[in-house]
Amino acid sequence: MKLFTVVAVALALPGVPAAAQWEPPSEVLLIDARGAGAWVLTCALQNKKGETVTRALRGSGKRSQRLSMLEARGGQCSYQAASDQQLTLTMRRGLYSCPLPTETRKGCEQVIEAGGSGRFEIRWLG
């Protein structure tokens, strides 16, 4: 019972991260895409062996999706928002430069208006 009490108190203390707050290491490329409707995000990324790996996300509702890759060495992503809905892309900084125009506390983001499309580069800083 004492161990349970110590763990419960430790989790309640400020500055002690809870299990739900875990963040992946900075070597992991993370791009979150949020939007309703039929949006698309496609990335052609180079892995640490120099091979090109293609990752794609497709929206079909109002939920968020996450594209991730360990130690992506660079690449290019393209996006297309749904014809009648916005698409929000958020990229965690980590070991990557932020190619999206709005700086956030943890990275950068861009809101793409309905029907909008474009591309951005992924650059590894490690």
UniProtKB/TrEMBL annotation:
The keyword Signal applies. It comes from the Bacteria. Residues 1-20 form the signal peptide. This is Uncharacterized protein. The keyword Signal applies. Keywords: Signal.
